[in-house]
Design a protein that fits this description.
375 residues; alpha/beta; TIM Barrel; two-stranded antiparallel ribbon; 11 strands
Length: 375
């Protein structure tokens, strides 16, 4: 069916840029928890404008967030996210170069469905499809599907079995039978056939078992350093990279998630961050998130909870890129020198933030040799 289709490069995998960039949470209301009026609306017109602009300026990835149940109660903005495969197909149809990443929870969705849905996106995009693999973490979403969230280690065992099925469905041109610990398939086959030999795969496992899963299956592993100092980042990146080499004999990209607050001066940026994160931060939504996922959170020290809450309100716990354009460019260069291959970016105001970033930060990254100039 697809013999005559031209497969385009998948930029997350194929870009020659030393520091790759993607944008996260762009199938809904973004990645910040705040009542600030600049928070991204998440309406379809804004999403399509952002997708076209990111595509135009050479951003490598457009990454969705998987959300079935809101934090903060019924009808809270954190539930207003489009389903990620339907969204990806629509984004694929209006863009030319950017990689389109569908995030999903493996414990909720069959590998047979994902293989067909992702192949559809792959065909529409001419080979720019990718997946962000989430092994499951928010119990209310499993309640919605009538399923039980497995214990931590069991989630990864199940996900390993899930990946065996998915990889076979994606690669096989003939029907097959497959039985493993969690699946028993007969006459299995997925059509239409995809264009890529394998979609780009991302994963953010942070525990030892999570790192093992990422190293085994993913092209891109996300890490969250305990310390933002570049030396600490370098140590963490090298640990992740070496583990993949030693255990699986493969090279993987190591990325960070980061939130961007860019203003004309460092002081303006810090004041703006304080306003949207602390003064107007959505404490209830973040409290719900923490309590649902950390059973012992009520016994944790107040300072630890306060720090965790701040990071989630700022931008899903990402690395802080706060300051002037010079500040941000310098930190991004330092992260690249520490071995970071890519950054997944979050803004409060995505459209305005991306424009200022493109005008003032990207040229500095190009001058530093981290990115090729956009043609």
């Amino acid at each position: 069916m697809n013999e005559n289709r031209t497969v385009k490069p998948n930029p997350i995998r194929d870009s020659a840029n030393k520091l790759k960039l993607s944008i996260f949470g762009v199938n809904g209301t973004g990645g910040s928890f705040t009542h600030h009026p600049d928070r991204f609306s998440g309406d379809w017109d804004a999403i399509t404008r952002l997708a076209r602009r990111a595509d135009e300026i050479g951003i490598e990835g457009f990454v969705s967030a998987a959300r079935w149940i809101a934090f903060g109660g019924d009808n809270h903005y954190s539930g207003d996210y489009h389903e990620t495969f339907a969204w990806a197909g629509a984004i694929a149809a209006i863009t030319e170069k950017i990689s389109i990443i569908s995030t999903f929870q493996m414990g909720l969705i069959s590998p047979a469905f994902v293989a067909k849905a992702e192949a559809t996106v792959d065909i529409i995009s001419n080979g720019r499809a990718g997946l962000n693999l989430v092994c499951g973490w928010y119990p209310p979403e499993f309640d919605l599907f009538g399923l039980e969230l497995r214990e931590h280690a069991d989630r990864y065992d199940y996900s390993d079995s899930w990946m065996e099925v998915f990889d076979k469905l994606w690669s096989s041109d003939e029907s097959f039978a497959l039985k493993n610990e969690h699946f028993d398939l007969a006459h299995a086959m997925s059509q239409p056939r995809p264009l890529q030999s394998r979609p780009v795969l991302m994963n953010a496992g942070g525990s030892p078992r999570g790192r093992e899963f990422a190293g085994r299956h993913a092209d891109v592993a996300f890490t969250i350093p305990d310390d933002p100092d570049p030396k600490a980042v370098k140590a963490r990146v090298e640990e992740y990279r070496e583990e993949a080499r030693q255990k699986f004999g493969k090279e993987i990209q190591i990325w960070l998630s980061a939130y961007v607050v860019q203003k004309d001066t460092t002081e303006e940026a810090e004041a703006y961050a304080l306003d949207y994160i602390v003064t107007q931060g959505d404490d209830r939504a973040v409290r719900d998130m923490i309590e649902a996922n950390i059973p012992n959170s009520k016994t944790m020290p107040d300072d630890a909870i306060k720090e965790m809450s701040y990071e989630f309100k700022a931008g899903y716990g990402g690395y802080p890129l706060v300051g002037s354009s010079d500040d941000i460019a310098r930190r991004m260069i330092e992260l690249s020198e520490a071995g970071v291959d890519g950054l997944m970016l979050i803004w409060l105001d995505y459209e305005g933030g991306l424009e200022k970033f493109a005008a003032e930060v990207l040229p500095q990254l190009e001058k530093a040799g981290l990115r090729a100039p956009v043609r």
